[in-house]
């Protein structure tokens, strides 16, 4: 069962009517979401949103949790109104039996300084066809990346990337290509040429999805009806 199916069943149980939801986007198989936003419409009044959230959490499976429910404007859309999304990708060179399901284990050393230099090259482009899954139904492969970089957290390195939108498989393909830079198999100029080629076959292999997390989605403040106004 998908997250969407579980949510719709839980909402339908509480509201006693079919309640379709619309999420902020889709994630690849195996990818995690520390934060996901969805909207739904109902003609039944919900007097206490906190209590309603708690009831939902009692019904939902243990790997899905509702943080809060906020009233929004009638035309609000979880996907199309999003201003930006942020993903984290976690890699490590140290074996850890407690978090192996959530990180990508790498062998050998990586040059993260040069990889961060390659990250800055991403700001120069908007067409990321080279990092997109083939044969998708999107109308454009243009995205505006506003932040990309690696940071160290103990024995783990985290790739953080923010953009107005992402293509399918985009982050995993970027990370895979940056790893080639870190292993000196691809130069900074070569990384630039990969982007300019607009050819998925020129980029690196996609890294596994289990280490990728959607961590933030930003929306315009005027989208929300604070204090149930």
Note the main attributes of this structure.
229 residues; alpha/beta; Alpha-Beta Plaits; 2 domains; 6-stranded mixed β-sheet; two-stranded antiparallel sheet; 5 helices; 25% helix; 19% strand; globular
Topology:
Blueprint: H1 3-15, E1 21-23, E2 32-33, E3 38-40, H2 49-59, E4 84-92, E5 104-105, H3 112-121, E6 145-153, E7 156-163, H4 170-182, H5 188-197, E8 212-218
Parallel strand pairs: 2-8, 4-5
Antiparallel strand pairs: 1-3, 4-7, 4-8, 6-7
Helix pairs in contact: 3-4
Low-confidence stretches: none
CATH topology of the largest domain: Alpha-Beta Plaits
Measured distance between first and last alpha carbons: 36 Å
Strand content: 15-25%
Q: What is the helix fraction of residues, given as a range?
A: 10-25%
SSE arrangement, N to C: HEEEHEEHEEHHE
Q: Tell me how many strands there are.
A: 8
**What is the CATH level 1 assignment of the largest domain?**
Alpha Beta
The coarse overall form would be globular
Mean pLDDT: 94
**Helix/sheet category:** alpha/beta
* CATH architectural name of the largest domain: 2-Layer Sandwich
**What is the CA-atom radius of gyration, in angstroms?**
20 Å
- What is the CATH superfamily of the largest domain? Pseudouridine synthase I, catalytic domain, C-terminal subdomain
How is the biggest beta sheet arranged? 6 strands, mixed
Total domain count: 2
Number of discrete helical segments: 5
């Amino acid at each position: 069962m998908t997250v969407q199916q579980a949510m719709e069943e839980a909402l339908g149980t509480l509201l006693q009517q079919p309640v379709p939801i619309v999420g902020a986007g889709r994630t690849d198989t195996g990818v995690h979401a520390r934060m996901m936003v969805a909207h739904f419409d109902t003609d039944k009044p919900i007097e206490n949103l906190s209590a309603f959230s708690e009831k939902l959490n009692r019904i939902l499976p243990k790997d899905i949790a509702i943080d809060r429910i906020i009233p929004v404007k009638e035309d609000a859309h979880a996907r199309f109104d999003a201003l930006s999304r942020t993903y984290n990708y976690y890699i490590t060179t140290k074996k850890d039996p407690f978090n192996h399901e959530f990180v990508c284990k790498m062998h050998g050393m990586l040059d993260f300084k040069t990889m961060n230099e390659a990250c800055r090259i991403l700001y120069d482009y908007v067409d990321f066809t080279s990092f997109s899954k083939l044969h998708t139904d999107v109308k454009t492969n243009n995205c505006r990346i506003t932040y990309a970089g690696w940071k160290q957290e103990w024995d783990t390195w985290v790739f953080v990337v923010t953009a107005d939108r992402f293509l399918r498989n985009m982050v995993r393909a970027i990370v895979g290509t940056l790893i080639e830079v870190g292993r000196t198999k691809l130069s900074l100029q070569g990384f630039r040429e990969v982007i300019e080629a607009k050819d998925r076959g020129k980029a690196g292999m996609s890294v596994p999805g289990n280490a990728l997390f959607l961590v933030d989605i930003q929306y315009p403040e005027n989208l929300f009806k604070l204090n149930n106004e």
